[in-house]
Every structure is written in structure tokens, then in C-alpha cells.
Design goal:
Strand content: 5-15%
Distance between the termini: 33 Å
Order of helices and strands: HEHEHHEHEHEHHEHEEHH
CATH superfamily of the largest domain: Phosphoenolpyruvate-binding domains
Shape: globular
Number of helices: 11
Number of strands: 8
CATH class of the largest domain: Alpha Beta
Oligomer: single chain
Number of domains: 2
CATH topology of the largest domain: TIM Barrel
Structural class: alpha/beta
Radius of gyration: 20 Å
Strand order of the largest sheet: 1-2-3-4-5-6-7-8
Largest sheet: 8 strands, parallel, barrel
Helix content: 40-55%
């Protein structure tokens, strides 16, 4: 799909300039062409093709089951819709931990086969070798610290992370490590607002929060959550901008009723 000439594309450099100027960065998840087209048209800065697709698109309880092939499928669908936003693609669980050579070849597959602009990896010092190797190939990397959903079985719960001093200090040093390695931004998930603000001040790269308060450089939400499509999920950090669950339910009820009563299609709706 051709890029409109008058659209200024968001790049990692644009995001860095936004942080430098104190301009907040808006980011939402996207998993398919139709939704991504609307999100991009709205003027969002970053679209994250999240491994949360495992939950909201496929119905899994965690993000762990989604595969590299499935992430590439979702990412390529999103990329075809986008004219302006920077597209970040989550590397799924098992595709980068433990083997940095494998991590690099998987990141290359994502970039080549999806057309995405960058990848996101969860974790700090324990995956730094993979991050270094991916960056050495010229692939932009976004970090992800705090609550890292791919490690849910290690944590045992989705509670707020880094409330204790030692975990907080570890998080700050991990953020600095990711910055030194060359990551262009970091997502901080579900950590105390005060700590997130400290991290945003202690590194020069953009910090995007989800459940990390207002002292960071931008925000990200899962699109199905903020639209209220996903009815069961109501954490404190989520602002619902719609109740699409109820609206869609109403539309489906009316459609069923119209079909059953023979009201649809009417005279004007047939050939």
C-alpha cells in the first residue's frame, strides 16, 4: 500500500525528539488490518503488535502460547494498514530467551516477513545478550520491564512489581542497561508511579507506561480493553473510552431479531 506523500512517518528518532521536547507519546495495540487502519488514521504514534493477541485474539489465558508465525501473521496484517505510526512487534515467549543467535534469526524473520519497524523483548540483564545481537544487525529494539507477562509463572501473579527497594533498584539499573545497549524506548508495566517517574528521569530514551502512572513519556493500552470490548478485564490502570461490548451485543440482538421477523432485508435492501 503506497504511503501518502504528506504523511510524516513516526520513527524512533521522532519518538526521541518527542521525549526531548516533553511531548507525550501515544501507543495502542493492534492485531489486524481493519482495526490498525482506524488507529493509524486517528494519528496514534506507535502501534504495538502485542503478544496480548494470545489473549484477546486467540483466547489463551496467558501470552505464552502464541508462536512466532502467528506474531508475523498479525504484524503483517497491521503493517499493510499503516501509513504513519511506528509498528513495534512483540517477540513471543521462547523466541529470544537463552539463545542469542536464535533470537537474532527470529528478529530478522519478523522484520523481513512482516515489514514491522522494530521488535520488543521482555526483560533486562538476563536477555541482554539477545538484545545486543539483535541491535548489532540494525534492528531497533524496545525494552519491557516491570511486570513482564511472559514470566507470569515465575511471578505467580499479575500484581504490581518493584514495590520492594531491591527490585526497584534492579529495575532502574536494568533500564540504564537497556539504554546503554541501544534500545530506543522501554515499556514499564504495572509498577509504582513514583518509581516509573524516577526511571523516566534517569534515562534519556522514551519510557512508555501501562499502569505506571503519569510521570513517564507516554502510555500504551490494549485496544480491546480501552474500547470495552473485553468485558471481564477491569484493572485500576485501565480507562475505558467506550463500552463496545454492550453496543455490539445490542447490534447483534437487533440483527438476529430483524432476520427472524423477516424485517431484514427490506425492499430497498434487495436487487
Amino acid at each position: 500500500m503506497s504511503v501518502h506523500k504528506d504523511v510524516k512517518k513516526v520513527t524512533t528518532k521522532v519518538l526521541q525528539n518527542m521525549k526531548n521536547k516533553g511531548e507525550k507519546i501515544s501507543m495502542l495495540t493492534g492485531y489486524d488490518f481493519s482495526m490498525a487502519r482506524i488507529i493509524d488514521t486517528a494519528g496514534i504514534d506507535v502501534i504495538l503488535v502485542g503478544d496480548s493477541a494470545s489473549n484477546v485474539m486467540a483466547g489463551h489465558e496467558t501470552t505464552l502460547p502464541i508462536t512466532l508465525d502467528q506474531m508475523i501473521y498479525h504484524a503483517s496484517s497491521v503493517v499493510r494498514a499503516v501509513n504513519r505510526a511506528l509498528v513495534v512487534v512483540d517477540m513471543p515467549f521462547g523466541s529470544y530467551q537463552g539463545n542469542s543467535k536464535e533470537a537474532l534469526s527470529n528478529a530478522i524473520r519478523i522484520m523481513k516477513e512482516s515489514g514491522g519497524h522494530s521488535v520488543k523483548l521482555e526483560g533486562g540483564r538476563e536477555i541482554i545478550e539477545s538484545i545486543n545481537r539483535i541491535l548489532s544487525a540494525g534492528i531497533p529494539v524496545m525494552g519491557h520491564l516491570g511486570l513482564t507477562p511472559q514470566s507470569i509463572y515465575k511471578f505467580g501473579t499479575y500484581v504490581v512489581r518493584a514495590k520492594e527497594d531491591d527490585e526497584a533498584e534492579q529495575l532502574i539499573s536494568d533500564a540504564k542497561l537497556l539504554e546503554e545497549a541501544g534500545c530506543f524506548a522501554i515499556v514499564l508495566e504495572k509498577i509504582p508511579a513514583e518509581l516509573a517517574a524516577r526511571v523516566a528521569k534517569s534515562v534519556n530514551i522514551p519510557i512508555i507506561g501501562i499502569g505506571a502512572g503519569n510521570g513517564v513519556d507516554g502510555q500504551v493500552l490494549v485496544v480491546h480493553d480501552m474500547l470495552g470490548i473485553n468485558n471481564e478485564f477491569n484493572p485500576r490502570f485501565l480507562r475505558k473510552y467506550h463500552n463496545l461490548y454492550q453496543e455490539m451485543l445490542g447490534s447483534f440482538h437487533r440483527y438476529i431479531e430483524d432476520v427472524k421477523t423477516g424485517d431484514f432485508p427490506n425492499e430497498e435492501e434487495q436487487y
